[in-house]
């Protein structure tokens, strides 16, 4: 299996609102791909369709040559962070990861490993209701990494993180990409993506308006931010 | 603040849907019940029961031996013998036995003619409740010495006074009532059906009435009214029971200063839950209202909207009170509309199917409509209070249903022994259903006055007050807790 | 099948790591038993028990929609049915435990009621509304029986209500709710 994401001709309407209009792009392994666009451009919908939470009206969304719902032990192929981790307020962070691990037949030892890696080891036995946004974000990342997947899909991973968290997240994503994984990161933080992403997909109004290496964008527009402002205008 | 909460309520489509569902369920259930009720008596419409002087439907069926009473006058007699039969009583329902039902009646009566439903005043010996004075169907009082067999009825001017005596010499007044105009005076015999309640196999009970007959011998008669004793079976004229055909017909026998009067029937108010179908949708509508009331508050907690609300109006007690007022007020209004619509519409259908709508009186109608709206409003506030207290929707809706609908269900079906069911309807918020009692319970009419038949252990307003106390108590508790809580 | 086994294990961990389900079962058990003892009527306690069990059945799924937990669940099981199946399998013994002291058929009944809650939650998703609908089916239909003047209608309504006496009717309600709920869960978008 090749660690790629392939979105092809994806369309989706909600009533009279067009959410996606033949969205097409490809995410290749070995680099972080930035996924940018204004609010309502279709980023989240695309990601939700990629992981089977929404159904597309037309087109295909494949992760590693397959639809998400065809995957066996899907979280070992794709790690996903959509909103900050949804956790039952009464369940501890560790137990949250434990049931997820069991659902994918991942050994429980992996849970403690990951809690250590995302810096939640100290809070692992506290109830989720008491977690800050940053802690829930770290828990969500832990859930995404649980199956050691070759593909990562992350929506606004920097949300709620403190400055140290930014550095940690940046390193984590860069390292995963260098390991040959496909990493799709939706974000509004142009400065972050300019340093982190090797490739950028810019969307507006449900369709792709630019799909190019970050370096090309920067060369042409001066910075990713200027490129974004120019492209989605 | 109330306006803001009102806007919140009406701008969530699901809640509007819930309130609409409450109306549709209320009206729909009433229509369903009305459409399912059919009554026919041969080819023609069933005769409506006569209406008594106080406006309610009455049974006026008894054996009457009478003379015309022009002005003042009196009638005195000794009840020499009072006996009867009861057909197929429990437990085995296999034979006809000698005996009198508790409210079998033999006595003296002054009545405004023989038209069923006309006013009367009477003094009588009863099967097992001693001497009574009764008038105009709904009024009853005990009196006279225990064991008295002598009865006297006197009219002076516009008052009729009843007396009873052990020996025909010393008389005790039983009571006096007002009654003037031309009248018939004479003897009455009546014997209401023998009532038993059985489980109907549908989780409820059904009431059965079996034929009884009473017979009384009057002697030592002194009457100021002259002429023959004429016999009429007031309100009668049916085919008669087998017993009457083959054993002893109803009627009057006169011989040597003795009158023997035999007959069945009763002089009593008529009631029946099925006669008022428009409240059938109360519980379905209540469930819909409970859901909306719980969601109205718990969705704020769940989505963190409560923080926005409190930023807009930091006085927490006021916020909660405003929300309670809105959910209560809106429920009241919506349900009131539903009751009025259900009443108008279902009564038309009900009548068109040949059913008889018993008159209930304007005050009762008003109480039923406003009371039902208030009951649902109070229950909505209660559910809302539970929502504030528990902050989570599921425990709140569960507890609301366990406190209101489940006690009502247990008490009105045969799942609990009757005593336990009535206890539930005194202490739980389901006590509020008492406001829906349509007909009063009468001590002198032997009927199963159970919740299953639409009779509640508390007076209408007392029951509603219990429910309101629950709602208020929970609300106060919720406010106290919420004021100090982190949101 | 391995998916189903993994789902069962995961759901078991979920169920035992928050107090909701154990608390509900405990409440149902204590409530049912104490009402039974107080009234001497085994069927009276069941009325209380079934309300709690029905809501527990709703909670196990609809609660995930309220907390947003449905997302990770669906990401773990994109085919969705293993999670639903695992929840159903977990609920049945939990519900049946409540009927200790009642007749064995009451245990079956409570199992069906728990699944009725689960199916309704899959269909309606909003926890409070789903619970309200299930409680309506359980309690409102029986209260309507006594209003029905026509004995045929009354009998029909009585027979059409889920009740410990009518396991077949109850099973039909449960099957309908599970069928519609499963179709909805498998085809509709996740909140």
Automatic annotation (TrEMBL), chain A:
Extent of the signal sequence: none
Pfam families: ABC_tran (PF00005)
InterPro entries hit by this protein: AAA+_ATPase, ABC_transporter-like_ATP-bd, ABC_transporter-like_CS, P-loop_NTPase
Keyword tags: ATP-binding, Nucleotide-binding, Transport
MF terms in GO: ATP binding
Chaperone listed as a keyword: no
Domain ABC transporter: 5-230
Family: Belongs to the ABC transporter superfamily.
Name under which the protein is recorded: ATP-binding cassette domain-containing protein
Organism (species): Paractinoplanes ovalisporus
From TrEMBL, chain B:
The keyword Transmembrane helix belongs to this UniProt entry's keyword annotation: yes
Superkingdom of source: Bacteria
Residues annotated as transmembrane: 278-298, 319-346, 366-390, 397-416, 455-480
Keywords on record: Membrane, Transmembrane, Transmembrane helix
Full protein name: DUF1349 domain-containing protein
């Amino acid at each position: 299996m090749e660690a790629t994401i392939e979105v092809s001709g994806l369309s989706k309407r909600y009533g009279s609102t067009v959410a996606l209009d033949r969205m097409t792009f490809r995410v290749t392994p070995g680099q972080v791909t930035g996924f940018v666009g204004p609010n309502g451009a279709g980023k989240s919908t695309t990601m939700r369709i990629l992981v089977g939470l929404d159904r597309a009206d037309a087109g295909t969304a494949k992760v590693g040559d397959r639809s998400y719902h065809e995957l066996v032990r899907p979280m070992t192929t794709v790690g996903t962070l959509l909103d900050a981790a949804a956790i039952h307020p009464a369940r501890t962070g560790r137990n949250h990861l434990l049931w997820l691990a069991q659902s994918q037949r991942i050994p429980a030892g992996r849970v403690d490993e990951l809690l250590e890696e995302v810096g939640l080891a100290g809070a692992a036995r506290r109830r989720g209701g008491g977690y800050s946004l940053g802690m829930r974000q770290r828990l969500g990342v832990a859930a995404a990494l649980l199956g050691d997947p070759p593909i990562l899909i992350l929506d606004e991973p920097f949300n709620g993180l403190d400055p140290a968290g930014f550095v940690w997240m940046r390193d984590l994503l860069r390292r995963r990409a260098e390991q040959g994984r496909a990493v799709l990161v939706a974000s509004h933080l142009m400065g972050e993506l300019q340093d982190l992403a090797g490739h950028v997909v810019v969307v507006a109004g449900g369709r792709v308006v630019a799909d190019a290496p970050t370096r090309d964008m920067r060369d042409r527009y001066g910075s990713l931010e200027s490129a974004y402002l120019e492209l989605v205008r | 603040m109330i306006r803001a909460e009102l806007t919140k309520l009406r701008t969530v489509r699901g809640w509007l849907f819930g309130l609409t569902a409450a109306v549709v369920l209320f009206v729909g259930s009433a229509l369903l019940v009305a459409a399912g009720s059919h009554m026919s008596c041969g080819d023609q419409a069933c005769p409506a029961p006569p209406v008594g002087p106080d406006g309610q439907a009455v049974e006026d069926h008894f054996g009457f031996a009478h003379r015309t009473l022009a002005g003042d006058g009196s009638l005195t007699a000794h009840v020499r013998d009072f006996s009867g039969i009861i057909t197929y009583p429990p437990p085995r329902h296999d034979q006809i036995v000698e005996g009198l039902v508790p409210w079998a009646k033999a006595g003296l009566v002054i009545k405004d003619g023989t038209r069923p439903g006309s006013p009367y005043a009477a003094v009588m010996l009863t099967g097992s409740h001693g001497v009574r004075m009764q008038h105009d169907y709904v009024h009853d009082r005990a009196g006279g010495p225990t064991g008295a067999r002598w009865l006297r009825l006197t009219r002076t001017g516009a008052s009729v006074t009843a007396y009873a005596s052990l020996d025909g010499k010393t008389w005790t007044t039983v009571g006096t009532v007002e009654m003037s105009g031309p009248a018939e005076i004479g003897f009455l015999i009546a014997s209401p059906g023998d009532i038993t309640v059985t489980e109907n196999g549908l989780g409820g009970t059904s009431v059965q009435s079996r034929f009884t007959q009473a017979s009384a011998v009057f002697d030592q008669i002194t009457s100021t009214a002259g002429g023959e004793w004429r016999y009429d079976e007031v309100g009668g004229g049916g085919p008669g029971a087998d017993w009457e055909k083959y054993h002893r017909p109803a009627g009057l026998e006169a011989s040597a200063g003795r009158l023997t009067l035999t007959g069945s029937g009763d002089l009593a108010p008529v009631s029946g839950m099925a006669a008022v179908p428009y409240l059938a949708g109360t519980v379905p509508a209540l469930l819909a209202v409970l859901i909306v009331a719980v969601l109205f508050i718990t969705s704020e907690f769940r989505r963190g909207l409560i923080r926005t609300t409190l930023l807009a109006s930091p006085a927490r007690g006021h916020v909660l009170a405003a929300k309670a007022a809105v959910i209560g007020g809106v429920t009241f209004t919506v349900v009131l509309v539903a009751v009025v619509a259900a009443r108008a519409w279902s009564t038309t259908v009900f009548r068109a199917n040949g059913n008889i709508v018993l008159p209930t009186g304007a005050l009762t109608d008003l109480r039923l409509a406003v009371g039902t709206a208030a009951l649902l409003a109070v229950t909505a506030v209660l559910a809302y209070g539970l929502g504030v207290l528990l902050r989570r929707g599921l425990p709140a809706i569960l507890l609301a249903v366990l406190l209101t609908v489940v006690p009502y269900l247990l008490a009105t079906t045969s799942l609990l022994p009757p005593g336990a069911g009535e206890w539930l309807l005194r202490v739980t918020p389901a006590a509020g259903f008492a406001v829906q009692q349509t007909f009063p319970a009468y001590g002198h009419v032997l009927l199963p006055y159970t919740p299953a038949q639409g009779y509640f252990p508390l007076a209408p307003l007392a029951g509603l007050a219990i429910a309101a106390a629950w709602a208020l108590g929970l609300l106060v508790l919720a406010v106290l807790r919420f004021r100090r809580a982190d949101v | 099948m391995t998916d189903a086994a993994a789902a069962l294990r995961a759901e078991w961990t979920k169920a035992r790591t928050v107090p909701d389900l154990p608390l509900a079962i405990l409440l149902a058990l204590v409530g049912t038993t104490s009402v039974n003892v107080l009234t001497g009527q085994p069927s009276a306690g069941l009325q209380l028990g079934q309300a709690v069990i029905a809501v527990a059945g709703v909670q196990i799924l609809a609660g995930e929609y309220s907390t947003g937990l449905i997302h990770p669940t669906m990401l773990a099981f994109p085919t969705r049915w293993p999670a639903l199946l695992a929840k159903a399998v977990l609920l049945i013994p939990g519900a049946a435990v409540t009927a200790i002291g009642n007749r064995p058929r009451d245990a079956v009944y409570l199992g069906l009621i728990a699944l009725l809650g689960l199916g309704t939650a899959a269909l309606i998703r909003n926890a409070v509304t789903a619970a309200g609908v299930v409680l309506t089916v359980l309690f409102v239909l029986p209260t309507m029986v006594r209003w029905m003047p026509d004995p045929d209608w009354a009998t029909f309504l009585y027979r059409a209500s889920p009740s410990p006496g009518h396991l077949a009717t109850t099973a039909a309600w449960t099957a309908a709710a599970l069928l519609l709920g499963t179709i909805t869960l498998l085809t509709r978008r996740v909140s």
